[in-house]
């Protein structure tokens, strides 16, 4: 396994120092990740079409308390533009292999949107690897999802919707946030650049076909998890934006009812990009949960 660290010119989303890019190979795939801080390991898993930068407003604050690790999932960010088997059991095994490569036996895991479904899969299929579980506007908890995502399941429309323009990227990003001001020009430029990586459009279309249909999230994405939520023994925090226009907040309330040790926090006047829209409040909530009794293992 080869480890490397590099610096890359990037558009800062905050005034905080940007972490170094690190790379390693997991199951034959070259992955980019960030790794900073000391203490109990904390793994951050981004959502559909995103990358490490979606945690940039959180990473430094969290790294002051934990060994904080964020990765670009395969086919995302600056990781290799190839995806492995994204079935939930295989995804859990892949994340476990990533932790193995970093010599991390057990971590608290934060999953955002699609990353929430992957974090859930790790908690269900590899429970011994998860200390605490945090689901942020998580996929995998029900069928409903925004029309803009469902249209990606329609062949002609998905080809049109994934044409890369700055205006299209700006409109897409603003549709995710309730507090539109967080989607500034720098953020749009970052998302636009990431979207231009060779092979990325094909990756997005492939993920959309496998995870979505015109009715919403495919049953294979959420039904197997839904039936096992009551088995999760890991202390769990569910974070949502009350104005989430992508995945309804009703999914959060249902999951909090089914997961035995779940806590729920809903931010008012906040949309799907919770960790960005209310970054300071999000960071403090997360730190408090992870440092509460039983959290530092």
Question: What is the gist of this entry?
Answer:
With about 300 residues, the protein is of the alpha/beta class. The protein has a single domain, classed as Rossmann fold (3-Layer(aba) Sandwich). The chain is about 40% helix and about 20% strand.
Would you spell out the secondary-structure blueprint of this structure?
Layout (H helix, E strand, L loop, with lengths): L3 E3 L14 E6 L2 E8 L4 E5 L10 H8 L3 E5 L16 H14 L5 E6 L1 H12 L4 E7 L10 H4 L4 H7 L4 H11 L8 H11 L4 H12 E2 L2 E2 L1 H8 L9 E6 L8 H9 L3 E6 L6 H4 L1 H13 L6
Parallel strand pairs: 4-5, 4-6, 6-7, 7-10, 10-11
Antiparallel strand pairs: 1-2, 2-3, 3-5, 8-9
Task: Tell me what you see in this structure.
This protein is an alpha/beta fold. The chain has one domain: Alpha/Beta hydrolase fold, catalytic domain (Rossmann fold, 3-Layer(aba) Sandwich). The protein contains 12 helices and 11 strands. A 9-stranded mixed sheet has the order 1-2-3-5-4-6-7-10-11, with helices on both faces. Strand 6, helix 3 and strand 7 form a beta-alpha-beta unit. Helix 1 (56-63) runs parallel beside helix 12 (279-291), helix 2 packs across helix 3 (114-125) and helix 6 (166-176) crosses helix 7.
Largest sheet: 9 strands, mixed
In the sheet with the most strands, the strands line up as 1-2-3-5-4-6-7-10-11
User: At the fourth CATH level, what is the homologous superfamily?
Assistant: Alpha/Beta hydrolase fold, catalytic domain
- The CATH first-level class comes to Alpha Beta
Beta-strand percentage range: 15-25%
Count of the domains: 1
